[in-house]
Amino acid sequence: MSKAERLIEMMITINAKRHFKVSELAEEFSVSKRTVLRDLQSLEQAGFPLYSEVGAAGGYHVLKERVLPPITFSENEAKAVFFAYQSLQFYKDLPFEQERISVSKKFLNCLPADMQNSITKLQSKVIFWVPDRHCDSPFLKELLDIVTNDQAVTVRYASEHSVTVRTLVPIGLYAMNGLWYVPSYCMKAGAVREFRVDRIEEIIEVIERPEKKARVSLRRYLGRIETGDDHHIRIKLSGPAVKRCEADFLLARGLEVLEDGSGIVDMNIAESSLLLVADILLPLGPDAEVEGPKELIDVMRQRAEALYKHYCK
User: What is the phi-psi region of residue 18: left when phi exceeds 0, alpha when psi lies from -120 to 50, beta otherwise?
Assistant: First the structure.
């Protein structure tokens, strides 16, 4: 094994161990302790974050901000990475915004000139656009840590109507149309609700997750597979309403397009999605006819009456 190959293998090994002694590496790589020390010095000079401790329990440690070993990419793989980067660039807030920028610069600068030109052309021709948002999500990174560590959190939350203190057991985080959401079991409501991250005004306390609360996967939640207080909706569509619902993130999952071009939405939705569905259907007018449930029909009627009163004073 050449020195270059050994250094790469050593980086992979060290990243996995996090704490190690020189004698361990010497035995694993079948080299002398002196050779291992020289290799570690080379890694440190290259920026690998190591620090040593003396004493019987000493050894080497890897800092929290680890440097990963080199990875080789094909041209199409490199383009795939930048496609993923493009999909995030228009979000106002991201958990690792500064790191995202530095990764982009490092990655692009390491590519051959012809690949750089190819990717630059892609960036000017293909854009994953999301609507401009003017609201900040200052607690996004903290919420990511809470979700990752499987914790609960008490927050001050500003809804459309009031500011309340709620204890949330998050299911996960997801982004949609430029906004971040943290669907959670709300202890106050006693049910799963959707919460917009930008409406969280303060994180009051991070607490241990109540053991009695069942864990629901984010993928399952987004698929609306869970039951609880969900509603079964059925909507008849005609004309442009079919195309509109095909493009909608929520209703497209339950849409069936018929041979004559009309459609039917038949699916379960969460209680918290009733208002969202009403907002989608209201601009469609008579091209969308809600057959059920009564709760959705009532919301549609209230929205239509409010709109009528506003313009027919």
Answer: left
SS3 call for 1: coil
What residue ranges in 19-98 does DSSP mark as E strands?
A: 19-20, 50-53, 59-62
Residue 78, CB half-sphere, CA atoms under 13 Å: how many?
23
Q: Write down the residue that tokens 């329990």 correspond to.
A: 57
Q: What are 137-170's pLDDT values in tens digits?
A: 888 889 988 988 889 999 999 987 789 999 999 9
Q: What is the pTM of this model?
A: 0.55
pLDDT digits (tens, 9 = 90+) for 250-298: 787 788 888 888 899 988 887 767 888 888 888 888 899 999 899 999 9
In the block, residue with structure tokens 């930008």: 198
Question: How far is residue 65 from each of residues 68, 75, 145, 243, 298, measured CA to CA in Å?
Answer: 10, 28, 15, 47, 53
